[in-house]
Amino acid sequence: MLTGKQKRFLRAKAHHLNPIFQVGKGGVNENMIKQISEALEARELIKVSILQNCDEDKDMVAEAFVKGTKANLVQIIGNIIVLYKESKENKQIQLP
Q1: Alpha carbon 88 to chain centroid distance?
Q2: Spatial distance between the Cα atoms of 86 and 66, rounded to a whole number of angstroms
Q3: What is the pLDDT of residues 8-63, one digit of tens each?
């Protein structure tokens, strides 16, 4: 689990990132979870955008990603989900 201080730090780091995944009409599927897992391993901190035509609630989408990738949910802001997972091989972010 992340502390409040760590979440603030990650939110600041994520501020300038662009979403690299979009969840649309199809919702969340295994393939998407696998790709997000790989992206988290490479980058540690990513944003996922939820499109207007997504049938699932954004909280449900975030929960599915957290369960599927074992990542930490940093925040949900508007239709953007920010996820963090410490990389095994490629550690770049040093948490406070």
Answers
A1: 17
A2: 13
A3: 999 999 999 999 999 999 889 999 999 999 999 999 999 999 999 999 999 999 99
Q: Residue ranges per domain, the chain?
A: 4-84
How far is C-alpha 55 from the geometric centre of its chain's CA atoms?
19
Q: Which residue has tokens 């955008």?
A: 49
**What 3-state class would DSSP assign to 31?**
helix
Return the CATH architecture of domain 4-84: 2-Layer Sandwich (3.30)
In this structure, the number of other CB atoms found within 10 A of the CB of residue 86 comes to 14
How far apart are alpha carbons 72 and 57 in whole angstroms? 18
Predicted confidence (pLDDT) per residue in 64-79, tens digit: 999 999 999 999 999 9
**C-alpha–C-alpha distance, residues 63 and 60, integer Å:** 5
Record the pTM: 0.93
